[in-house]
């Protein structure tokens, strides 16, 4: 199969859909790989790395879209890219169609077969192509929170690990899923005193079994949440209710109960944020203050560490990309129901129920799409 990878054009996106290592594996499987010139630069992969891996370099995105049988990307295709998609072509990337009727319409009109990273599943009920970015954001959260806590940035002026004779920062992580667990581990590794809150008792049991001695766990009732928040120097918001906006767990009025200069890191900002006073910020201008409390609310945190994020995403996507290329999308999806769950659009029809429900569009069952 001819696999193509264009340079990402969404603002502030430095990741790339195919790493040189993934390109080399695809070439070893007998596929032809073409990368747009400069596509890997933001992640530290020059064209030469791809050439060494056996890939070809194309000058423009038009070349990639015109010739590739499968286009592999990171972010959802922008309007100009959508115009270049064509019938029969496979698109493998993040799509996030539910809040995006324009993109959904364009993808349907293109006739392409569009497989979304974010809806591919695994045997344990997880989302294996979303998890690596949650791992990155989680591990980054204490790092950016520690910076926010510095006095010059408006924070309390508290050092995560303290020093001999001075206690460490107290960190409260709300939500003990993928983001929260990774955040708690790193915060504890920095020497902070860490507590993780969750509403799922099985999850709290797992965390306690696995990490007792590293961090504490507590139940996320509203009363307990605000009581523990009052002791915290840093609060990391990491909750998720799948398919719903994040619940608001600290109101504006409750900011008065927090320590002055405390840092709120709202990782859940991409679902609307879990603090009432959260609003999305960018890497250029990541923090702001409300009532003496510092907020960090960057919606695409993994972009700050584009190289790590690209490699982590590539590790997760590569087996699926190889399967699609080796077998063709139909056979690959027939053999693997988890990959079939990624199918969102095929030949002019929407094939993902939650998106159809959100946008009021008729859905063709993915199993019927396999036969269509
Ligand atoms: N800002 C970014 O760059 C970025 C990057 C990756 C992920 N995220 C977001 O981070 C959030 C967390 O993602 P995840 O992968 O860890 O999800 P996850 O499903 O693994 O974990 C979410 C956890 O929140 C818990 N929870 C739900 N409601 C709660 C409540 N009221 N109080 C306490 N806990 C509650 C759940 O029980 C679950 O354990 C999501 O909104 C995700 O989109 C943001």
Write the layout of secondary structure elements.
Blueprint: E1 2-5, H1 20-28, E2 32-36, H2 47-52, E3 56-58, H3 61-67, E4 70-72, H4 79-82, E5 90-93, H5 101-110, E6 113-116, H6 131-148, E7 170-174, H7 178-189, E8 193-198, H8 201-211, E9 216-219, H9 222-229, E10 234-237, E11 263-266, E12 287-290, E13 293-296, H10 306-335, H11 337-340, E14 343-346, E15 349-350, H12 353-359, H13 366-371
Parallel strand pairs: 1-2, 1-4, 2-3, 4-5, 5-6, 7-8, 7-10, 8-9, 10-11, 11-13
Antiparallel strand pairs: 6-14, 12-13, 14-15
The structure holds nicotinamide-adenine-dinucleotide.
Nicotinamide-adenine-dinucleotide (NAD) is lined by residues 133-134, 137, 174-180, 197-200, 203, 220, 238-241, 246-247, 249, 267-271, 299-302.
Report the count of strand segments.
15
Oligomer kind: single chain
Which class best fits the helix and strand makeup?
alpha/beta
Helical segment count? 13
Main sheet, how many strands, which sense, barrel?
Answer: 8 strands, mixed
Strand content: 15-25%
Low-confidence runs (pLDDT<50, min 5 residues)? none
Globular, elongated, flat, extended or rod-shaped: what is the shape?
globular
C-alpha Rg (nearest Å): 22 Å
Mean pLDDT: 96
The helicity comes to 25-40%
What ions, cofactors and ligands are bound?
A: nicotinamide-adenine-dinucleotide
Order of helices and strands: EHEHEHEHEHEHEHEHEHEEEEHHEEHH
Give the strand order, joined by hyphens, for the main sheet: 3-2-1-4-5-6-14-15
CA-CA gap between termini: 21 Å
